[in-house]
Amino acid sequence: MFLSRLATVAGLACVTAGQVVNQTSCNDKNYTYQELAGYGLISGNARDEYGDTIGGIGSAIALDRSQWKKLSNGSYNGVLWALPDRGWIARFHLLWDMIRRQGFKKSTHFTDRHTPSPSNRKLIRSNGRNTEGTLNFQPRVHKFDILFTPQPNATVASPSGNNLFFTYKETIRFLGPDGTPCTGLDADGTGHISFPGFPDLPVATYQGDGFGNDGPGGKRIPIDSEGLVLTPDGSFWVSDEYGPYIYRFNPAGLMIGAIRPPDAIIPMRNGTESFSADSPTFYASKGAGDDVTPADNPTGRDNNHGFEGLAVTGDGNTLYVLLQAAANQEGGLNKQTERYARLVKYDITIPSAPRYAREFVVPLPLYNDPTAKASKNPKVAAQSEIFHIQDGQFFILARDSGAGHGQSVSLSVYRHIDIFDISTATDIKGTTYDCANCSIASDAGVLKTGITPATYCSFIDFNVNSQLNRFGVQNGGAQDASLLNEKWESIGLVPVDGLVGDDDEWFVFSLSDNDFITQDGYLESGEFRYADGSGFNLDNQALVFKIHLPDHSRPFDRDP
Ligand SMILES: *[C@@H]1O[C@H](CO)[C@@H](O)[C@H](O)[C@H]1NC(C)=O
Ligand SMILES: *[C@@H]1O[C@H](CO)[C@@H](O)[C@H](O)[C@H]1NC(C)=O
Ligand SMILES: *[C@@H]1O[C@H](CO)[C@@H](O)[C@H](O)[C@H]1NC(C)=O
Ligand SMILES: *[C@@H]1O[C@H](CO)[C@@H](O)[C@H](O)[C@H]1NC(C)=O
Ligand SMILES: *[C@@H]1O[C@H](CO)[C@@H](O)[C@H](O)[C@H]1NC(C)=O
Ligand SMILES: *[C@@H]1O[C@H](CO)[C@@H](O)[C@H](O)[C@H]1NC(C)=O
């Protein structure tokens, strides 16, 4: 029985055994969302081995395929890598005022009593994008042991408690090719840094310690991590938003390679490359002002809309990277027009010599934002992650923004893991579309004739309350810990049989990015303490979906 109608009746429908939540067919391949299988969290004030807050970790995840095991008692063990982005961002004017009033110095602890009132909070939020302040956070990846015990009998009337548990293992911090730590600080408006054997890389020049205190200053490679792919030799790839680049790190976190994308994706200002995302440093921004002119680069990836999606094929030989939404010369400056996103394919058969192979266009889904004026709808659901299934079919996590725990609106209307298929899409690689000001669409977001984009198929809706409520969580409603976070940004797959998935049954893990929002935050090896100006504490939430993939799918090759 096809249950989409039932499932959309939030909180009323209870899917019983044998039924499914939804099914979809994409180019004759059938996918089934069977049920929500789990929920778990890492507390928003958990800290890593360096004393820093474990936050933002849902920017990307990777499940180590060699460690995933089904235990005889029905539980599963695994190792999950989780990638935070560029660290905590001071988002509010008032926070800066508060710090100045107190005389900002190391070890100052900002407490709840300085939290803005809800009405102030609203005002501060409306100050928008220019209130950000980036910090000299060293980008990193965390590893966790996970213990997962499916609870198929959970119902809305009798929900399961959390059934996914995380035990912190270790953290790898990222270093540039010469061993200098990388940074979450925004890139400089002009210039780059060079290393032998690498393309020119973005650079962030900072003063003091980069947190607002005394120090020698310096230059570091800025990375706002968003995508993660593991390889069998222990090295791993990370895609970022500043360049946007793809970096390769050895198991110790040392950068051993970098991929610079086609020029059409590189941000340009005044006719030269300009990697700044217009996210001023915390110590210089004082909560106001741009740090680069013009704030919006006319061509290339939009600010903070870089390589959100990174995937590898099952044989490990091909990387795919997808922009969060359209580049600026092709509609990227508006939520209504940023629909056509570039997907770039690299052959990494020789990992030290990646080869640009092909390029395609993915049409992002549209949704109606009930809080927006009719003239502002429909909006494009930007994407936050991709995962390769097989034969050119991918999962893609596309969603709305501004709705969820800690946001002014609690009801999200679009939060999906959908599917796209590139088998009939046009390969746009080449001089026609790849030059600095070349475009695949008009700046109003109309795709050029002659380009066939990927096929897009709707699939898993995160927001089905009849499933969420089985694990005591929900979309919409009260602003409390059981409300889903705004930002879901990661996809990991593991087989239900604990082996290779011959029965095509898989668990899909997704973690949310909590933006490091806590009232008990630590950075700079525990020396920089903060309380987010929103007043909220957000957990790092995780969901597990049980699905059936098309027959004989092999998202990854593995000997049984
Ligand atoms: C079910 O999938 C269809 C596409 O096959 C989609 O249009 C619909 O929104 C989905 N419904 C739910 C509740 O996920
Ligand atoms: C996919 O599902 C449809 C509808 O249930 C069915 O008719 C079709 O045979 C299925 N296709 C495959 C390849 O399983
Ligand atoms: C299964 O065994 C593991 C390992 O001993 C244990 O941690 C887990 O709690 C057990 N699961 C159940 C459902 O008892
Ligand atoms: C679920 O319920 C069925 C029927 O009551 C029972 O046989 C089964 O053991 C239960 N499964 C779990 C994991 O509790
Ligand atoms: C671009 O040119 C303007 C006008 O000369 C200048 O103010 C601005 O700083 C330049 N921006 C960059 C990134 O070079
Ligand atoms: C692209 O930039 C080049 C160099 O600045 C310029 O000559 C050319 O006219 C531009 N092309 C378009 C389509 O804007």
UniProtKB/TrEMBL annotation:
Enumerate the residue ranges of region (Disordered): 108-134
Keyword rRNA processing found: no
Annotated Phytase-like domain residues = 78-429
Q: Where is the signal peptide?
A: 1-18
Q: Keywords, A to Z?
A: Signal
- Signal: present as a keyword of the record? yes
The transmembrane segments are: none
Check the record and name the InterPro entries matching this protein. Phytase-like_dom (IPR027372)
The molecule here is called Phytase-like domain-containing protein
The organism is Phialocephala subalpina
The organism's taxonomic lineage, starting at the top:
Eukaryota, Fungi, Dikarya, Ascomycota, Pezizomycotina
